[in-house]
Amino acid sequence: MSAHIAWQKSSFSESEGSCVELAWHEGAIVMREGDIPELIIRMAPDRIRTLLAAVKELRLTS
Questions:
Q1: Alpha carbons 33 and 29: distance in angstroms, whole number
Q2: Is the pTM of this model over 0.70?
Q3: Which H or E run contains 43?
Q4: Mean pLDDT, 10 residues at a time, over the chain (62 residues)?
Q5: Burial 10-45 (b: 16+ CB within 10 A, else e)
């Protein structure tokens, strides 16, 4: 991946420590955990939509 990725931090993340960051990069969505920034997951946009829908469903039913 290129050296510069414009990461966007989740609004639900803490100011220090645990956070999830997402970015659009080379036609895909990339995601990383703030505590381990060198570990980057790359997903097709339709896959991240499925993941986010599942997480929202869990949140609504909990």
A1: 14
A2: no
A3: strand 36-43
A4: 78 71 92 88 90 84 68
A5: eeeeeeeeebebbbebeeebbbbebeeeeebeeeee
